[in-house]
From TrEMBL:
Keywords: 2Fe-2S, Iron, Iron-sulfur, Metal-binding, Oxidoreductase. This is Benzoate 1,2-dioxygenase. Pfam families: Rieske (PF00355), Ring_hydroxyl_A (PF00848). It comes from the Bacteria.
Length: 360
């Protein structure tokens, strides 16, 4: 194991964190791609992106090109976005609507259920050789309108992978009315795990997030670890607001912040019915693409919704600065590992899962 327990002067047991080379070694990221990202459920989209038959979007999971498309039969399916003829990436655009998918190399076409339609360079007797060619499907499940895929055919179903998380989510009455309204991305100059670590504790909130602690009752802040996920949350302080949002009258009066193994965060802020998902997608061992997706009732945000987004983004900016400073220190020879406080048990859970997945 890459972490160990140490005793302090009062004999209280602290655990040492994972060693910092796990945040700076490109070989570790290669292992993580194989053993973590290729074996876990990854959020790829929301059903509101695929309203009509033929609607599709493309994405990447663990560097694999993926296409998710709604068929003529209304069924949503996921495939590797790769042509069975000679591997060319099939659909180039990020999203759209098509009656048929066509490969740009030799013109093979595919129906929306992935079956071969035509292979123009295989005629007559040759045609029989390729008649069963089709796009290779990827495991996909949709829960609470969120579309997940998993590259691992042996993985547990999504519905069994995160304890009672989706049951908890279904209890927010406004959730079914939300659609994916917008997405923002940014590059964070830090290892993907650094941002997850940051998200999983709120010891830093008093120091780093003045607006957050002003609005939320931090005396009641709780962190609970569950099966492959964790929850943090609290209620709002009496008579608080941000921008035009009167938190005591709001549809959502508390904040609920979830983490799902390995790299997904789901946040529901106090205010009008809302949800955001945050994904940390490694670009390399020291750079991460952060993908923030917002879900509201309508693309045209109300002033309250805009103020909520501004509030969440302010908090997030404060976090990004911290993890980029942390990455500088990870590279330093000064220390090899850190220490967890007793309120950082959600980080301990995350690190134990990383180490187990990597067989460390
Ligand atoms: S590679 Fe796609 S048709 Fe040849
Ligand atoms: Fe933070």
């Amino acid at each position: 194991m890459a972490y160990n327990k140490v005793e302090n002067a009062t004999n209280r047991t602290f655990e040492r964190t994972m060693t910092y080379d796990l945040y700076t070694d490109p070989k570790v990221l290669d292992k993580e791609m194989d053993l973590i990202f290729s074996k876990s459920w990854q959020l790829v989209g929301h059903v509101s992106q695929l309203e009509k038959p033929g609607s599709f979007f493309t994405t990447e999971v663990a560097k694999e090109p993926i296409i998710v498309i709604r068929g003529q039969d209304e069924v949503i399916r996921a495939f590797y976005n790769v042509c069975p003829h000679r591997a060319t990436k099939l659909e180039k655009s990020e999203a759209g609507k098509k009656k048929i998918l066509q490969c740009g190399y030799h013109g093979w076409t595919f129906k929306l259920d992935g079956k071969l339609n035509k292979a123009p360079n295989f005629r007559g007797e040759d045609a029989a050789c390729v008649q069963d060619a089709c796009l290779r499907p990827v495991r996909m499940e949709i829960l609470e309108s969120l579309i997940f895929v998993n590259l691992d055919d042996q993985a547990k179903p999504l519905s069994e992978s995160y304890g009672d998380f989706f049951e908890r989510l279904s209890k927010f009455p406004f959730l079914g009315k939300l659609k994916r309204t917008h997405q923002k991305t940014r590059i964070i100059q830090a290892n993907w795990k650094a941002f997850i670590d940051n998200y999983l504790e709120c010891d830093h909130c008093h120091v780093a997030h003045p607006s957050f602690v002003a609005a939320l009752d931090m005396d009641d802040y709780q962190i609970i670890t569950c099966e492959n996920y964790s929850i943090q949350g609290t209620i709002v302080k009496p008579d608080k607001n941000y921008g035009s949002v009167d938190l005591n009258q709001a549809e959502m009066q508390g904040g609920s912040f979830y983490w799902l193994w390995p790299n997904l965060m789901v946040t529901i802020y106090p205010g009008p019915g809302n949800m955001a998902t945050i994904q940390m997608l490694p670009i390399d061992h020291e750079n991460t693409l952060a993908v923030y997706t917002y879900y509201f009732r309508d693309e045209n945000l109300t002033q309250e919704e805009k103020d909520l987004v501004a509030f969440a983004e302010q908090v997030r900016q404060e976090d990004v600065e911290l993890v980029e400073l942390e990455q500088i220190g990870f590279r330093s020879r000064a220390f090899k590992k850190g220490v967890y406080s007793s309120s950082e048990k959600a980080i301990v859970q995350f690190h134990e899962m990383v180490l187990e997945a990597l067989n460390e």
